[in-house]
């Protein structure tokens, strides 16, 4: 086991800097990270996504907005191939991930570039924080090593670097279940970094957090977006949060894109036109207190 020490801190810092350069060099200006074309998906005949087309450039941070049931989670899950749409195409960095209901064989590699953060964190509670982060690397190692969770020292150091970046290095050897919600969500973000994800999809990442933890998680996502050019697509219920953290937003209603543009233009009038009375819920719901002080 690697001990936490000043020495380790220096190694971790060096790894972080190499990692940042690696990610930055991967980034190509104005290369689409995600291209969605005419995507349609229904559950038992009821449409969840209707001819959704959307391009997200590398390094963008985009919010998905919409009332409950508008299709935000379904859209995010089709972007990493967790869900198949009947019609339409999803491309990741110009390579097709799914097209007209078919998932491509290269998708394992493609999917490793896409990290996913869930509202309920989805950590393995009985494992340590460090092991949860190392899990992010599983798709890139042999099945023997992954079965027995055999990780090299270099891999552990990278995982510790990821934990350092999200601000919870000192928690590395605790069981994940013992961490607060905000800390657990930061472990989930560290797992995405370990995975080498270039794109992070976050489905209501702050909906289960107290206001202060929510703010810290959003600021971490913004920082990673800005310093590493990580592409972030996040669904958020709270329009205040969207206005504060995301320059671009996409508003869905009944699986149809109703707005795609600068968040500054998604004012209360616009929301009322799209959602009618339901707009009030989007504006008032949750965490508004962060911005009132
Ligand atoms: N696994 C499923 N089986 C059946 N219907 C589903 C399933 N997943 C989603 N749906 C339906 O698809 C539509 C879109 O749901 P989705 O979960 O994508 O909405 P959402 O915008 O994420 O809502 P919320 O804000 O409540 O999370 C809804 O009508 C929902 O009932
Ligand atoms: Mg949802």
UniProtKB/TrEMBL annotation:
Stored SMART domains: AAA
InterPro entries the record matches: AAA+_ATPase (IPR003593), ABC_transporter-like_ATP-bd (IPR003439), ABC_transporter-like_CS (IPR017871), ABC_transpr_PhnC (IPR012693), MetN_ABC_transporter-like (IPR050086), P-loop_NTPase (IPR027417)
TM helices/strands, residue ranges: none
PANTHER family per record: AMINO ACID IMPORT ATP-BINDING PROTEIN, PHOSPHONATES IMPORT ATP-BINDING PROTEIN PHNC
Residue ranges annotated for the ABC transporter domain, each copy included: 34-279
GO molecular function: ABC-type phosphonate transporter activity; ATP binding; ATP hydrolysis activity
PROSITE patterns attached to this UniProt entry: ABC_TRANSPORTER_1, ABC_TRANSPORTER_2
This protein's GO CC annotations: membrane
Zinc among keywords: no
Entry keyword set: ATP-binding, Cell membrane, Hydrolase, Membrane, Nucleotide-binding, Phosphonate transport, Translocase, Transport
Gene source species: Phormidesmis priestleyi Ana
Protein name: Phosphonate ABC transporter, ATP-binding protein
EC number, as in UniProt: 3.6.3.28
Chain coiled-coil ranges: none
Pfam families reported in the protein's UniProt record: ABC_tran
Keyword Membrane: yes
